[in-house]
Amino acid sequence: MLHVSERGQLLPPSPYRQLTPYAEAARRRGLVVHPLNIGQPDIETPPQMLAAVQQADIRVLDYGPTAGLDSYRRVLADYYQQQGLAVTADDIIVTTGGSEAIMFALLACLNPDDEFIVPEPFYGPYQGFAIATDTRLVPVSSYLENEFALPPIADFEAKITARTRAILLCNPNNPTGYVYSRTELEQLRDLCLRHNLYLLADEAYREFCYDAPFVSALELPGAEQHVVLLDTISKRYSACGARIGALVTKNQTLREAVFKLAQLRVCPPGLGQLLAQAAAELPTDYFAHTQAEYQARRDLMVARLQAMPGVQCPRPGGAFYVLCQLPVDDAARFARWLLEEFELRGETLLVSPAAGFYATAELGRQQLRLAYVVHQDIINRSMDCLAAALKQYPGRQE
Amino acid sequence: MLHVSERGQLLPPSPYRQLTPYAEAARRRGLVVHPLNIGQPDIETPPQMLAAVQQADIRVLDYGPTAGLDSYRRVLADYYQQQGLAVTADDIIVTTGGSEAIMFALLACLNPDDEFIVPEPFYGPYQGFAIATDTRLVPVSSYLENEFALPPIADFEAKITARTRAILLCNPNNPTGYVYSRTELEQLRDLCLRHNLYLLADEAYREFCYDAPFVSALELPGAEQHVVLLDTISKRYSACGARIGALVTKNQTLREAVFKLAQLRVCPPGLGQLLAQAAAELPTDYFAHTQAEYQARRDLMVARLQAMPGVQCPRPGGAFYVLCQLPVDDAARFARWLLEEFELRGETLLVSPAAGFYATAELGRQQLRLAYVVHQDIINRSMDCLAAALKQYPGRQE
């Protein structure tokens, strides 16, 4: 009998998509199911960027350079420089989405059985990336009561072993929306310098900060050799399907190892790079517009959630998620009940139960992640559903 | 001091690109350098396929399904069915290039330290994929004297250990151009059934067979649960930059594991899939045209090589490479000499020394791989260069 590998067996299914079959069944019954479960922006991909692909004169869609098109790397370096980051084109390896940047960073920084520490709740696939790369994700818990702020450095230190090689931080955070302060980042930097760790900074949501300026890990003085930026255009330009990301580091030795990994897949997607490169043509106020729209959505969703009896919802400073605590026995059971047993005027909700974002058992069991990537009218209708559902749900707990 | 991982250190640089700096220097000196080193087809990407992307009505370039667009999977299943293969859309997971299919197959079929057996010479990056996935590539030698035919099954059996999980076969072969016969494939199938191994079939060049019909591993009766097809549109449609491949298997358990790996990167490139899907609109004689062109190039290159004193060159049945033996001390030294010290009427050659395609030390040291992905006029000029160079090269050996 043929066997699937242990990693193939151990990999968890996506925490975002487990409820999809129930949502499809609800839609077949005629319900409108509002999708708040995944971070797929509804904001249109900038037409200038699509036009750059659609008007390109291509005779042979050939392999490009392994590290990405030189022209695109220069555009991307300009983008970082406009943010005050001392990044040059040479520091950049263009990747196939942010996911490939995560994979490359883990493969190049960690040996099998090495450990990396991540504040939990965390982006669910990190656990899968650890399994695929044969490395160990070690969680340090952050708590809703504390708005999911950075856990005390002592909690990180308590988890450090001889096998610890890196801290992985998603900032702004998915799933919590928390934006780490300069002070918190400096504490982490000092920890990494003290224990000789890489600081893997997943900044997929770097352009979505609503209350305070974003601080990138690349800004931290003294950490240049430690910081590995994991980036993507997916959220920044509503271009998830382009599969264009980047790994950025001033650490040349590490970059050379990543380059050899990148050679295995020859080059990142060519058409997506043409699209990404045209970001240079966007008006300078492009992000101001998208930020204003997401901020209004956040304010609306948080206000609605905070008005529901028994719901606890910190006000996230960034990304486009809220992680809230509900007065229910089990958020996964509640999420399924929403799709199977509930409706309000022919509508219901698809949400992500938060347990899939935690490595520690039992944490987050009453929590949901909601993505505000839909129009404000849909947010209102969704919150109407949620408020009504929380009154009717038989597993309600105070 | 921060360290790069062991896999990061062990990864070999690409055997295709090591001479690139010397080629660039030669070009800066004003030489025309004919690129016969990599398999980048010069044949144009079908305009119908590019038009499908360029005329698509896209508002949000969003995440697609993890296994690929349903519409594209159906088109791809139709393609296989036209070849007589019983493939349905459900059997297909669309990948980001053939490279991702290789990575997924190794991760899903093999545990760390497990082994897979590959006839050598082999596609150079296989060794890197083994390192990245912490698996072991075990070579079984094939020989130029035997036209690089499948090594005797006894040679495979001699390499099988308790850790062997798969045979990886590239058919038509890169770098040798050898096309495996039905009898050879059946022998391999029997071996896989007997020893409970996966048969990973890299058929990137499946449409480039010149002397006999191609036999796919998917045609082998009784091996349905064992065969994993690794495919790509890169060569088939001159669309290397699209980064669209596929992993195809009837083994549902394995496919579910691959699907979980695929969920980590959410989806394959969206624009590339639109392009790939439009292959359905190509005229039915599309491959006849491209095959005729490549076959004429092969015939020309092989005839020219065989006419050079001391050169041994089997006549490859497929792909677009020849692997030939030269009367030189060291093919790598010769290749560098071509770029640094040789010219004929202002022209020279960029080639791939074959040592990078072997795992066994010393094998292939006098061999070169030449890709016939350039116009016949360039092939003639390149062969003029090679013939002259072999006369002048100080390290010539009879």
TrEMBL record, chains A, B:
GO terms for biological process, alphabetical: amino acid metabolic process
Stored CDD domains: AAT_like
Keyword tags: Aminotransferase, Pyridoxal phosphate, Transferase
Domain Aminotransferase class I/classII large: 35-343
Keyword Protein biosynthesis: no
Entry GO MF terms: pyridoxal phosphate binding; transaminase activity
Family: Belongs to the class-I pyridoxal-phosphate-dependent aminotransferase family.
Protein name according to UniProt: Aspartate aminotransferase
